[in-house]
């Protein structure tokens, strides 16, 4: 059992271990390093797209199947902690770096990275030319995505409960992932979900009226990913009741923190970090945006998210070159649609022309994207090896 006083120390150890497991894992967990490079780099001459909501942390693990409130599933962006109104080119570089890292982890040859980036820009540009009045996904899905969608649509509450809670009972089992709360934490969580400001929205997630009751069944501190370090992060089971009917739902309560991603000059965004995340989600990932709300807990901004059984992340162990190319094109098209739906037709056309103009005759991937990914891959590889060295020394001490 983790004592609340020891959370920070344990979280640091867990993060360091996860980031030492592979170069790809290190890239996923080092968003701030990416933006430090972006701030200091002037050599890659990134194009300046129309200011729109961008993911800000557009890597493989942050894309995947997401259900809307009615259970309909699409591949969309899953995590919007870093979302800002900014330059869409930043998402392309971040996704390119993630795909290049996954290719190297799969022992694909260097030429595969060049082709992956070609498919990325082609998929993105093709999405910008699409029909944005049609909300359905029309792109050809690679096998890994099709299999994931089939798995997603077949999932039910019991799958979510067994996966997240290690039980189908309405309780949270304490252990490596879920830690004991203090009495004050439990009291504040109950106050939050039962408050008149939050309760009606939580009830509406299950199709209940605004007068339905919401009660906290169980809750725990959630040790999840690398992002929990030093932040509020809770899992909570709620019972939503109206008349003789009641439903259990699982929510994620996560502290909203300042984004590392740079915002466009003059961009008007919510000052509250939770409200910023909700606004970005509604623009980029409508399925997720329907299930998010901002609130305050212990005086801090938090984002409340209903977890759905259909929500999954893309987990890549080993990719063949053909599958890597198809995956790159498809995910880039997902990002392209998320970006493009925010632009008017004139801006979409101008952005498409700008990207096409930047491509060379000999290689479809523009030089700014290739140079950025090569430089970032080199910097991250060196940082990863240094991280592993420091981790090994700390373990030996």
Shape: globular
What would you call the structural class?
Answer: alpha+beta
Question: Sheet bearing the most strands, described?
Answer: 6 strands, antiparallel
Unreliable sequence segments = none
Taking all Cα atoms into account, the compactness measure Rg is: 21 Å
Strand content: 15-25%
Termini distance? 24 Å
> What's the number of helices?
14
Helix content: 40-55%
* Count of domain modules: 2
Q: Tags for this entry?
A:
2 domains, 397 residues, two-stranded antiparallel sheet, 10 strands, 14 helices, alpha+beta
How would you describe the overall organization of this protein?
The protein is an alpha+beta fold. The chain has 2 domains: about 20-155 and about 315-395, no CATH class; about 165-305. The chain is about 45% helix and about 15% strand. It has 14 helices and 10 strands. It has helices at about 5-20, 25-30, 30-40, 90-105, 110-130, 145-155, 155-165, 185-195, 200-205, 275-285, 285-290, 320-340, 345-355, 365-395, and strands spanning about 50-55, 65, 75, 85, 180, 215-220, 235-240, 245-255, 290-295, 300-305. The chain has a 6-stranded antiparallel beta sheet with strand order 5-6-7-8-10-9, sandwiched between helices. Strands 1-4 form a two-stranded antiparallel sheet. β7 (about 235-240) and β8 (about 245-255) form a beta hairpin. α4 (about 90-105) packs antiparallel against α12 (about 320-340) and α4 crosses α14 (about 365-395). The longest helix is centred in the last third of the chain and has 30 residues, at about 365-395. The mean pLDDT is about 85.
């Amino acid at each position: 059992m983790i004592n609340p006083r020891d959370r920070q120390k344990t979280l640091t150890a867990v993060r360091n271990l996860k980031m030492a497991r592979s170069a790809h894992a290190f890239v996923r967990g080092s968003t701030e390093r990416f933006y430090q490079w972006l701030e200091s780099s002037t050599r890659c001459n990134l194009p300046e797209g129309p200011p729109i909501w961008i993911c800000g942390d557009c890597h493989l693990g942050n894309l995947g199947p997401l259900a809307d409130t009615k259970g309909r599933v699409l591949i969309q962006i899953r995590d919007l902690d870093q979302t800002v109104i900014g330059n869409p080119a930043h998402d392309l570089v971040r996704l390119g770096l993630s795909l290049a890292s996954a290719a190297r982890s799969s022992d694909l040859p260097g030429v595969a990275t060049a082709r992956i980036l070609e498919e990325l820009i082609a998929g993105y540009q093709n999405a910008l030319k699409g029909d944005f009045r049609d909300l359905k996904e029309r792109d050809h899905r690679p096998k890994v995505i099709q299999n994931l969608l089939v798995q997603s649509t077949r999932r039910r509450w019991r799958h979510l409960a067994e996966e997240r809670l290690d039980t189908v009972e309405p309780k949270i089992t304490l252990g490596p992932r879920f830690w004991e709360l203090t009495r004050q934490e439990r009291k504040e969580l109950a106050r939050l979900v039962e408050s008149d400001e939050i309760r009606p929205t939580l009830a509406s997630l299950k199709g209940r009226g605004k007068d339905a009751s919401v009660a906290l069944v169980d809750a725990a501190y959630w040790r999840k990913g690398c992002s929990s370090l030093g932040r509020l992060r809770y899992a909570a089971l709620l019972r939503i009741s109206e008349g003789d009917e009641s439903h259990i739902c699982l929510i994620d309560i996560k502290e909203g923190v300042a984004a590392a991603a740079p915002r466009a000059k003059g961009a008007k965004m919510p000052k509250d970090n939770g409200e910023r995340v909700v606004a970005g989600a509604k623009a980029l990932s409508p399925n997720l945006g329907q299930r998010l709300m901002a609130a305050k807990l212990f005086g801090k901004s938090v984002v409340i998210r209903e977890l759905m059984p259909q929500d999954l992340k893309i987990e890549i162990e080993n990719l063949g070159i053909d599958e890597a190319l198809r995956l790159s094109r498809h995910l880039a098209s997902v990002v392209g649609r998320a970006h493009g739906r925010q632009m008017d037709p004139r801006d979409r056309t101008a952005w498409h022309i700008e990207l096409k103009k930047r491509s060379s005759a000999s290689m479809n991937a523009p030089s700014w994207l290739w140079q950025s990914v090569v430089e970032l891959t080199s910097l991250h590889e060196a940082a990863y090896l240094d991280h592993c060295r420091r981790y090994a020394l700390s373990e030996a001490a």
